[in-house]
Amino acid sequence: MGKKDATGPRLPVDQYRKQIGKQDYKKTKPALKATRLRAEAKKNSSGFRDAFLVIAAILFCVLCVYAFFYLNLSTEMDLDLDVD
């Protein structure tokens, strides 16, 4: 079996695409390290964000229940005072 590139003359577009593909692999070590660090930071930060959102949702629900009972009880107490 022959190589993929061993075929006859190619179009300039194919040569250009091959050249661009080769350039993509020529990344320096600092660039690769920075990319890896960004990916790790993104992966790690999502855990904290998810935990914060869960805690915020629970607090919001508790606050809604508290406000509901507070408003209901405060109106009953006002009615008791008006009867006298």
TrEMBL record:
Domain of life: Eukaryota
Membrane topology, from the record: Single-pass membrane protein
InterPro entries associated with the record: TRIQK (IPR024842)
GO cellular component assignments: endoplasmic reticulum membrane
Residues that span the membrane, as ranges: 51-71
Keywords, sorted A to Z: Endoplasmic reticulum, Membrane, Transmembrane, Transmembrane helix
Compartments, record wording: Endoplasmic reticulum membrane
Similarity comment: Belongs to the TRIQK family.
Protein name as annotated: Triple QxxK/R motif-containing protein
Lineage of origin: Eukaryota, Metazoa, Chordata, Craniata, Vertebrata
